[in-house]
Amino acid sequence: MDDVMLNQFLLLSAVLFCAGVYGVLAKRNAVIVLMSIELILNAVNINLVAFGAHNGTVAGAVFALFVIAVAAAEVGVGLAIVLLIYRNRRSVDLDEVAQMKG
Amino acid sequence: MFAAEAAAGHVDPGFLLEHAYVVPLVMAASFGLTLAIGKRLGRHASWIGIASIGFCFLFAVGANVQWYDYVHDSEHAAEAEAHADEAESHGAEAESHEEEGHEDEAESHEDEAESHEEEAEEHSLAPAAEGESAVGPMAPVAEEGGHGEEEAHLEFEVQPVQKAWTWWTNGTVEFQAGMLLDGMAVMMLFVVTLISLLVHVFSTDYVAGDRRYTHYFAFLSLFSAAMLGFVMSQNTLQLITMWELVGVCSFALIGHWWEEKPNSDAALKAFLTNRVGDVGLLVGMVILFFAAGQTFDIIEINTLANAGDITHTALLVASLCLIAAVMSKSGQFILHTWLPDAMAGPTPVSALIHAATMVVAGVFMVARMYGVFWNGLVIGGSSVNALAVVGGITVLGGAGLAFVQSDIKKVLAYSTVSQLGYMVMALGVGAWTAAMFHLFTHAFFKAGLFLGSGSVAHAVHSFDMKKDMGGMKQFMPKTFWTFAVCTAALIGIFPFAGFWSKDEILAGASQLGGEGSYTAFLVVGSLGALMTAAYMTRCIYLTFFGEFRGGHHGEVSHGTEDHPVEEDHLAADSGHGDDLEAAHDPHAGDHGDPHESGPRILVPLYILAALAVVAGFTNIPKSGVLDWVPDGVALQFEHLFEPKGGYFPTAGAIEGALSHPEFDIVIALVSTVLGLLGIGLAYAWYFKGLGPHGITSRNRLARAGHTLLVNKYYFDHLYTGVIAGGFKGPIARAANWFNQKGLDGVVNGVGKGAVAGGRFVYDQIDQRVVDGAVNGAGATAEGGGQVFRTMQTGKVQQYGAILFAATVVLAGVFIVVV
C-alpha cells in the first residue's frame, strides 16, 4: 500500500473520528453517545490496520482485533449503565444526569 | 673498693625486710575488716585491730633485727669479709618471730603478696641497678682519706631495700607504689607499730562502751596503715597520698565525738590548717618532679640533688614549699594552731597521732628528702636557714604557751609543738641524726605523758588541772611515777632518754655549720630546755600535788572550759560500760575519790616509762668525756639508722657532707643545770609559793605578756578574725552586692528579655506569620474551590469536551515543539 492510499485511509479515519467526537459531545441521547464512541474506536482501528498494511505487517490488524474485543466489552458495560439510568429516570438524556455537579 | 661496693649492694636483706610491704596492707585489711564485721563483734571488734597491730609489731621487731644484720653485713661486705654465718643465725631468729606473729588474716595477705612477687622482682631490680650506677662515680670514699681515720664505719653503703609496682605508665613517667626501707623507715616501723599497739591496748579500757567503738578502732587501724605506708614511701606520689590519708584519719579521730560543736570545729580546723601546708607539699613535690627529670622516685631525686644535677634555685624553692607542709603537719609556727585544738579527740588518739607519730610526719618528710633540703637550703653552709629559724621560733613559742594552759592535754600539746620545733631546728642546723634520735625518744615519753594524762582524766573525768585535779599522787601513785619518769625524760634529766637526744641537738647547734653560724639556736635550745622544765613542773604540781580540787562531778560546773566534752563522754562511757567493766561501775556511779586505772591502762604506761629511761642509750656518744664507751654500744642509733648512700648527704656523697657533733660536757652540763633551774624556779613558785605572785595583776608589762600568752599570741584571732574574717566580710559583701546587682540584674534582665522576646514572637511571628500562613492556606483553598466548583457541572459531555480540548492543545503543543 502506497502513501496515497494510506493518506486516503487516514482521511477516512479522521472524518470518522471527528464525527464520533461530535456525537459524544453534542448528542443528548446516551445510546447515540455510545455509538459515537464506537465510531471513534473504529477510526482508530482503521488507522491501525492502514499503518499495518503500509508497513507490511499484521501487527496493526492484530491490535485492531484487540480493540474490537475491548470495545465490545465497553459497550456492554455502557449499555448496562444506560439501561439502569433509563429504569431510574425513564429517560436517557445525559443533561439530566448531573448528580456529580460540585 | 669498687668491687666491695658492688658486693655491699648485693647483700641479702632478709625475708622480713623484703616483704615489709605487708605491714601496711595488714593494717588496711584490719580497717576493712573492723568496719565490715566490727558491729557484730561488739566489744571484741578491738581484737581485730590489736591482733593486726601486734602482728605488725612483731614483724617490725623482726625487720629491725634483720636490718641490724643487713647493716653489719653491708659493712663486712664492704670490708670484703663476709660474716655470712652470723647473718644466717640471726635470720633464722627473725623468721621464728615472724611465725609467731602470723595471724589468720595476715596469711590471706601473704597469698596476695606472693602473686605480686614475680612482678615485683623485675621492677625492684631496675631501680637498684640505677642506684648503683648513680652512686658508683661518687663511691671512692676511701680515696678521700680525710675522714677515713675518724669515721671508719661510714665508709660503706647500705643499699635501701626497694620494691615498686607500676600502677600505670603515662609516656615515660611511671606512676608507682612501692616500698623503700632504709634505716629511718625501719626505725619508724618499730616506733609506729609499738606506740600504736600500746594505744590500742590502752583504748580498750579508755573508750570502752563508746557508741562508736568499732569506728574508733577502725580508724586507728587505718591511721596505722597510712603512717606505715608513709614511712615506707618509695616515691613522692605515695608520700603525698599517705600524708593526706594520715590527715584524714586525724580529722576523723579528732572529731570522734562530733556531736559537740567544739569537737567537729577542732577537726575542721586541723583539716583546713593542714590543707594550707599541703598546698606547699604539692607544689614542692611538683617542682622536684620536673627538676629531677620527671621522676617521683625519692632516692633518685635525692641522689640528683646531691650530685648537683638539679639547679640550686629549684631546690631552694622546693624546700621552702615543703617547709610550709612541715609547718602545718608538724605544728610549727605559724601553722601550729590546729595541734592544741586537736586535743578534742580521745586521749589515746592524741598520744598516737598528735604526739608520737602523725605530727612527726613533717619532720620525717624533711629527713626523707634531706638531700633536697641540705642542698636547697645550704644547711652545711654558713648562713642561717629557714628550716632552723622556723624550728627555733617554735621551740620558744610553744614552750611559752604551755605555761598558761589549765588543760593538761593542752600543756602536753604545746610541749609537743615545742619538741617538734627542736626536731625541725636540728634538721635545720644539719644534725639529722639528732633530729631522728629526738623523734625516736620523744615518741616514747610523749606518748607516755599523754597516756598518763588520759589515765588521770579517766579517773577524774576532766582535763582541767586547776578545777578537777591536784593531789592525784595519793590516788594514782603508779600513774604518777610513770608520768614523772616521762617528764624527767622530756625535761632532759641526765640518764633519761630526752637528755641524750636533746643534748645531741644542742651539740649539733653549737658545732655544725660554718663559723658557728647556728650558735643562736644553741641559745634558743637551751632556753627551751629551761622553759620545758618549768612548765612540766607546773603541770605535775597542778595535777599530782596540792589539794584535790575535783569531786564535784554531780554539778554541771565545767561546761565552760576548753574541754567540756570529753569528760561528759567519759562519764557516760563508764556509766553504761558493760559487765566486764564492773570494776569501773561503782566509781562511775558515786563519783567518789578517783582511783588508780586498770592494767590495760597501766601496762602501756610502764612500757613507755621504761623506754623513756632506756631509749636514750641507743645513741650514747663516744667522744669527749664519754670516750670510754665501748664501740659496740656507742652511737648504735646513728650507725644503724642513718642512711649511707648517694641519696643522703653523707660523707663521700657530696662535698661538705653531713658531719656529727661530738659530745660536749659543757653543753650537757649547762643544759642540765638550766633544766634543774627551771624545775627549781617552778618548784619555788608553785610548791613553795615564793616569788612575785600576782604580778600579772600589778605589773602592766607582766599582764600584757600573760594576756598575750593566754590569747595564744593572737594567732587564732589573726586566722579567724583578721584573715578569715577579713576575707569573709568583704567577700561576703562583695558577693552579696554582686548577687544583688550583678547576678540578679543578669537574671532579671534575662527574664525580662525573655518575656519581651516571647511577646514579640507571639504577636509578630505566631499571630501574623504562622497563623497568617495557616489561615491564608485555608482561604486560598476555599476561594480556589469556589472558582473550580463551577467547572464541575456534573455533565459528562462537558468533561469530555474539556478532556478533548486539552488533548488537542497538548497535541498541538507536541507537534509544534517536536
In short:
The complex is a heterodimer of chains A (102) and B (818). Chain A is an all-alpha fold.
Report the sheet-strand fraction of chain B. Answer: under 5%
Strand content of chain A: under 5%
Class from helix and strand fractions of chain A: mainly alpha
- Radius of gyration of chain A (CA) equals 17 Å
Widest β-sheet, arrangement of strands of chain B: 1-2
For the secondary structure, the number of strands of chain B is 2
The parts of chain A where pLDDT drops under 50 for at least 5 residues are none
**Total number of helices of chain B:** 34
The end-to-end span of chain B amounts to 112 Å
How far apart lie the N and C ends of chain A?
A: 51 Å
Structural class of chain B: mainly alpha
Q: pLDDT below 50 for ≥5 consecutive residues: which ranges of chain B? A: 1-9, 81-89, 92-154, 553-591
Main sheet summary of chain A: none
Shape of chain A: elongated
Give the SSE order of chain A as H and E letters.
HHH
The whole-number mean of residue pLDDT values of chain B reads 77
Shape of chain B: elongated
The residue fraction in helices of chain B comes out at over 70%
Topology, number of strands of chain A: 0
Mean pLDDT of chain A: 90
Folded structure, characterized:
The complex is a heterodimer of chains A (102) and B (818). Chain A is mostly helical. Chain A is 79% helix and 0% strand. Chain A has 3 helices and no strands. Chain A has helices at residues 3-26, 30-55, 59-89. In chain A, helix 1 packs antiparallel against helix 2 (30-55) and helix 2 (30-55) runs antiparallel to helix 3 (59-89). The longest helix of chain A has 31 residues, at 59-89. The model of chain A has no long low-confidence stretch (mean pLDDT 90). Chain B has 818 residues and is mostly helical. Chain B is 70% helix and 2% strand. Chain B has 34 helices and 2 strands. Chain B has helices spanning 2-9, 15-18, 22-41, 46-78, 84-101, 104-135, 141-144, 183-206, 213-231, 236-254, 261-291, 298-307, 312-329, 338-341, 347-356, 361-368, 370-376, 386-402, 408-429, 432-460, 465-468, 472-475, 477-491, 497-511, 519-544, 564-575, 585-590, 599-614, 636-641, 665-687, 695-698, 700-710, 715-789, 796-817; strands at residues 161-170, 173-181. In chain B, helix 19 packs antiparallel against helix 25 and helix 20 (432-460) runs antiparallel to helix 24. Chain B is elongated and about 145 Å long. The termini of chain B are far apart. The A-B interface holds A 21, 24-26, 33, 94-95, 97-102 and B 788-789, 791-797, 800-801, 804.
